[in-house]
Amino acid sequence: MEYIYGALLLHKLGQPVTAENLTKVISAAGVQVDEAKVKTLIASLQGVDIAKELENASAIAAAPAASAGKAEAKAEEKKEEKASESAAGLSALFG
Question: Domains in the chain, start-ordered, CATH in brackets?
Fold first, then answer.
């Protein structure tokens, strides 16, 4: 995970995500660098627009949050309906 975080940090700072830069970041964090992981990550990021991918990830993450908010609102409405129905039923008893 630290390799991905390192790549994201480099991207955020506007630095090129290269094997050399990523190795420096990982080393600076006090972690023993695994060159195979660095090479694999750099190879998998070839041709990837990190900014665009982060934007897509943000949009995907926001969608479930919006749906959850709607579900909570519906659940609250049902509770209010049940409470008012219960009150109406009680008033019929003492009518």
Answer: 2-69 (1.10.10.1410)
